[in-house]
Amino acid sequence: MGELSAETLLHKKVRGYVVDGGCRDVEFILKIGFPVFCSFNTPADIVARWVPDRFGEPITIGTVTICSGDYILGDRDGVVVLPAKLAEEVISQTEQVVSTENKVRSAILDGMDPQEAYLKFGKF
Questions:
Q1: pLDDT tens digits for 69-121?
Q2: Where are the beta strands (DSSP E) in 1-124?
């Protein structure tokens, strides 16, 4: 995976690239607005070493299986996979966590001791 592959995928409306392996030209790829998440950066080209062997089937990266329709969310801290069948429940729980974290943040910014904020809201 490199600059030309990313440009091609972006043109084909692919939303991003996640790989349990290397990628080159990462800074350029990110500058063109194509999200890329890889295990390591490499100068090596993939020509003649990367061949798709199936499409639309589940894949496993590490211990996580990803199926068509699952949600993949990533930032510089990492990538998470949200199975489609759990999406509604997880989103609801996440909204509750964010709401509590916002209360903790506001309390701390207003001068409350962080430990006191944790004890009051139960989250940190």
A1: 999 999 989 899 999 999 999 999 999 999 999 999 999 999 999 999 999 99
A2: 17-18, 22-23, 36-37, 40-41, 59-61, 64-66, 71-75, 78-82
Q: Which CATH architecture has domain 3-82?
A: 3-Layer(bba) Sandwich (3.50)
**How many other C-beta atoms can be found within 10 angstroms of the C-beta atom of residue 20?**
12
- 34-65 confidence digits (pLDDT tens): 999 998 999 988 777 777 788 889 999 889 99
Would you list the domain boundaries of the chain?
Answer: 3-82, 88-121
